[in-house]
Structure to design on (403 residues):
């Protein structure tokens, strides 16, 4: 789903604006799209009607991610790759006080808009090798801040002159021909890291599964999740780094940000989970950042197993960095015995979380489910290196129903 650069220009003119407004007023559901298209084609150029509808449908799709979605400009691919407001606002803060920040792979401008929103950043340089993306990014940045001092350039990031630039952000392309290519990016990571020889303050996005051995000395690896949804990582150059590893959890409801950084957690005790204890299932940003021990130390928690990222506390805890469950029972893993125990407990739907054991989670959850109506979670894991099952339920599952 995309449009041509000349159509993007036409949509900025009177007829294009009228068409977009007419479609927005109808805001058609997928079932009504064809009817609206036929109606508008009677009085307008069919090509332009199709382009306007494309933009409108992309705006509809973008609504959950961008506060200005209904005014923004997208290509299908550009929207798919764009950083939503929440994450973009969080990471743009590192460039506070910069005089001129370059976004060298600006796409349709998700991150660029967040940089534009910051009044404490002077000017912006937006670069992408895709002309349509550059044009859309410039339009979108001006939605975020109409008076923004912005230079938009169609070029390869590798060819751009970085004179007067004191901050660089780079969110390289990570897909080729619609397929994931692992850690291969355009521009390549090695080139991106070398940018710090030219500009001290650099941020480069990386796949969340990045091998920590690829993080250069002095750089910070930050992993961000929105709720429990792990987004990507960012490598911050030494001039922007304030930790070695950081997990950030953004609360999609309240907008709050929670930060956990590496430290010296010391020894974390090994604890056998028993009924009444709380199990904490750490957020994927915490596990990917390698901060499970730091989280344990902060919560005063123990570990079920030295190699497994489930934590246990004697007292009930809640944390933005994980999901808390109350242990109902724990026993050595044996599917038939676990199923029998679940039946005794009146389990209904059963979620299975697996760490340290093999097995098809969906198939096992299906076999374990009962008809009792009590939603339970089974942690298939290891305790002291032995296969273990922890039967648990959400800490506040029955709030309001017991009174
Ligand atoms: C992941 S997207 C960027 C998304 C952007 N951060 C946003 O929030 O909208 C990557 C972009 O990099 C561009 N790109 C890939 N290789 C490039 C290169 N060598 N030079 C400039 N742009 C490049 C692609 O055209 C694409 O628009």
């Amino acid at each position: 789903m995309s449009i041509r650069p000349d159509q993007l220009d036409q949509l900025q003119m009177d007829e294009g604006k009228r068409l977009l407004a007419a479609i927005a007023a109808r805001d058609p559901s997928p079932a009504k799209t064809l009817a609206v298209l036929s109606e508008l084609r009677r009085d307008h150029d069919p090509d332009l009607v199709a382009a306007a509808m494309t933009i409108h449908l992309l705006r509809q799709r973008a609504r959950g991610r961008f506060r200005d979605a209904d005014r923004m400009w997208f290509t299908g691919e550009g929207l798919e790759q764009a950083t939503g407001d929440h994450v973009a606002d969080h990471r743009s803060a590192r460039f506070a006080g910069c005089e001129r920040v370059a976004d060298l792979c600006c796409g349709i401008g998700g991150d660029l808009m967040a940089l534009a929103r910051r009044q404490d950043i002077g000017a912006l340089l937006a670069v992408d090798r895709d002309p349509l993306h550059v044009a859309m990014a410039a339009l979108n940045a001006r939605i975020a801040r109409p008076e923004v001092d912005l230079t938009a350039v169609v070029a390869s990031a590798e060819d751009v002159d970085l004179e007067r630039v004191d901050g660089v952000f780079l969110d390289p392309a990570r897909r080729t021909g619609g397929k994931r290519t692992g850690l291969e990016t355009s521009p390549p990571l090695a080139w991106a890291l070398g940018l710090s020889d030219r500009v001290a303050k650099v941020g480069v996005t990386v796949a969340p599964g990045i091998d920590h051995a690829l993080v250069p000395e002095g750089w910070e690896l930050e992993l961000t999740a929105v709720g429990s949804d792990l987004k990507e990582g960012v490598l911050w150059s030494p001039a922007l780094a304030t930790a070695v590893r950081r997990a950030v959890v953004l609360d999609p409801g309240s907008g709050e940000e929670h930060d956990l950084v590496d430290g010296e957690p010391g020894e974390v005790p090994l604890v056998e989970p028993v009924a009444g204890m709380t199990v904490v299932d750490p957020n994927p940003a915490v596990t990917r950042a390698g901060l499970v021990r730091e989280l344990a130390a902060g919560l005063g928690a123990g570990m079920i197993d030295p190699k497994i990222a489930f934590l246990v506390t004697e007292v009930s805890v809640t944390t933005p960095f994980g999901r808390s469950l109350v242990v109902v029972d724990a026993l050595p893993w044996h599917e038939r015995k676990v199923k029998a125990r679940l039946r005794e407990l009146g389990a209904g739907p059963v979620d299975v979380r697996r760490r340290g054991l093999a097995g098809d989670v969906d198939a096992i959850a299906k076999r374990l489910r009962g008809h009792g109506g009590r939603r339970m979670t089974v942690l298939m894991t290891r305790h002291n290196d032995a296969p273990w099952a922890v039967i648990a339920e959400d800490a506040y599952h029955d709030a309001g129903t017991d009174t």
Observations:
- Residues 46-62 form the longest helix (17 residues).
- The pocket of S-adenosylmethionine is lined by residues 81-83, 105-111, 127-130, 133, 156-158, 171-173, 186-187 (CB under 6 Å).
